[in-house]
Amino acid sequence: MNLQDLQEFIEEKRVKNIDLKYVDLVGRWYHINFPARRIGYVMENGIPFDGSSIPGMRNVESGDLILMPDLDTARYDHFDSSPSPTVQIICSIQEADAPVGYKKDPRSVAKRTLEYLKETGIADDILWIPEFEFNLLSEAVYYNTTHKSGYRFSTMENKQALPFEYEDHDATALTHRKGYHLDRPYDRNASVREEISDYIEEHICPIRYHHHEVGISSQQEIETELIPFEHVGDNIMYIKDAIQQIARKRSLTATMMPKPMHGEAGNGMHFHMQLRKNGKNICYKKGGYADLSDEALYFIGGILYHGRSLVALTNPSTNSYKRLLPGFEAPVKLIFGLANRSAAIRIPKYATSEENKRFEFRTGDATCNPYLATSALVMAGLDGIKNKIDPSDHNNGPIDENIFDWPEAKSAALPAIPASLEEALQELQRDHDYLLQGGVFSKSLIDGLIEEKMKEVAEVHERPTPYEMNLYFNL
Question: Which of 133, 295, 383, 422 is catalytic?
C-alpha cells in the first residue's frame, strides 16, 4: 500500500482515526491516535513522543523520539475498539534529529537483521512458521496485594475447573485424558478458534492449520504458513491482538502465558525456519543427516552453541522456566534431532523435499518480543555459519531418542537450557557478541533489556506465593 492507496481507502471507508502501534523492549504494544486527515503530514514527518516514559527506552534528559508509520502494515480495525472507523499502522522508532532506526527500537533491530543477512551473502531471506499456543478461559481472576495473593481460572472443558454457574449437565467436561486434536463436543471452543483462524487468514496471513492442543483447559494451537522475515514480527503482534480481541468478543479470556496452570501442558511459541537465496531453499542437501545442507547444520549449530544466552530473548519471563520442564514435550536440552520433540531443535520428518526442508526451534514462548527473538535466532544461526559451528562437535546431537527416558546421569551430560530467567540473563551478559555483529543489536539495548528483566526477577523473588502458604504457614 502506498500513501495514495491509503488516502483512497480512508475516503471510501470514511475512516476518522489512524491508530499508530509501536512496541517496547519487552514486547508490549503502545498506541497513539490522530485524525485521518493528517496522514500525509505524518507520513512525511512522523509523530514525536517521549521515549523516557516507555520503560527502558530512553533517559528523561533526552527523551524525544519519532514514530514513523510503515504503510505495509496498515490494517482496518475490525474489532470496534474505536468509536469511529479506524486504520491501525505499526511504526518503527527513529531518532528525533536523524531519519535512522533507533538502536533500542525492536522493530528497527529486525530491519537491521534482514539487511545484515543479505550483506553476508549467505541468504537473502529466512521464512518462518510461528506456532501460537494459548488457553481460552471462561474466567481469569488474579490479585496481589500486601495481605492477599492468588488466582482462579475456570473453563467448561475441565471437570475440575468449571465456572461457578456451569454444572456440566451434558457431561462434556473432562479430567483424565489429553486434549490433543480433541473433537467436538469436547472441543468446546472450536468455533472461537475457527473465528480467530478465519480472521487471520482473511486479514493478516495464510493459516496452515489449527486444532485443540494437549491441555484440557481449552488449550489451542494455530499455525501459519511460511512468512518472510520482514513480516513475521508484525504478523505475530497482529495475531496476538486478534486472539485477545476475538476471545473477549466471545466472553472468554485468552492467555499465552507459558505455564498458567501447574500440571498441564504449557504454551510455547515454536519457530520453523527456512533459509532462502535467490528463491531457492538452501537448507536442503540430499544424503546428509535428515537431508540438511551444511549451511543448515551450521545455522542449527550456532543457535544451540549460543542457546543458553539466546533463551533470555526467546523465553524472557520468570514463568517461561516453569514450562521448560521434563515430561511436557518442552525441551530442556540444547540438542537437535529428526522428529524429536524432546530436542530444542526438531527436524520435521515429513518435510522431505527440497522445497519444504526446514527446522523448528521448540524452546520459545509468546512472552518474547517477536522482533528481538526472531532477530536473535537469525544472528546466532549466522554466527554458526560464519564460524562453521558443527553441533556434533559440541555435544548438541543429532539425537533421535527421547532423552526424557534416559538415565539421569546420561541426560545430565547434555548441554542444558538455563533453569531460570536470572540464569539466562547472566548468560546473555556473558555471551552477546554474536548479536552485535553488523550493528544489528546494540550494547545499550542488551543492557537495557537485562535491567528491565532483572526487575521482574526481583519482583517475583521477593513475593510469597500461595503454595508457600501450604508448605510453611503452620510449620
Answer: 133
- Predicted TM-score (pTM) above 0.85: yes
Q: Are residues 312 and 428 in contact, defined by beta-carbon separation less than 8 angstroms? A: yes
- Check if 341 is active-site: yes
* Catalytic (active site) residue 50: yes
Cα distances from 272 to residues 131, 135, 232, 406, in angstroms, run 8, 22, 11, 27
Catalytic residue status for 405: no
Active-site residue 112, yes or no? no
**Is 131 one of the catalytic residues?**
yes
Q: Is 360 a catalytic residue?
A: yes
The CA-to-CA distance between both ends of the chain, in Å, stands at 65
Amino acid at site 358: R
Give me the catalytic one of 187, 221, 264, 422: 221
Choice among 58, 270, 306, 432 that is catalytic: 270
- Residues 361, 271 contacting (CB under 8 angstroms): yes
167-226 per-position pLDDT tens digit: 888 888 888 888 899 999 999 999 999 999 999 999 999 999 999 999 999 999 999 999
Helix (H, G, I), strand (E, B) or coil at 65: strand
Q: Catalytic: 362?
A: yes
The C-alpha atoms of residue 145 and residue 148 are separated, in whole angstroms, by 5
Q: What single letter denotes the amino acid at residue 409?
A: A
Which three cell numbers, joined as nine digits, stand for 171? Answer: 457431561
Enumerate domains of the chain plus CATH numbers: 3-100 (3.10.20.70), 103-124+281-475 (3.30.590.10), 126-277 (3.30.590.10)
The model's pLDDT over 410-468, given as tens digits with 9 standing for 90+, comes to 988 999 999 999 999 999 999 999 999 999 999 999 999 999 999 999 999 999 999 99
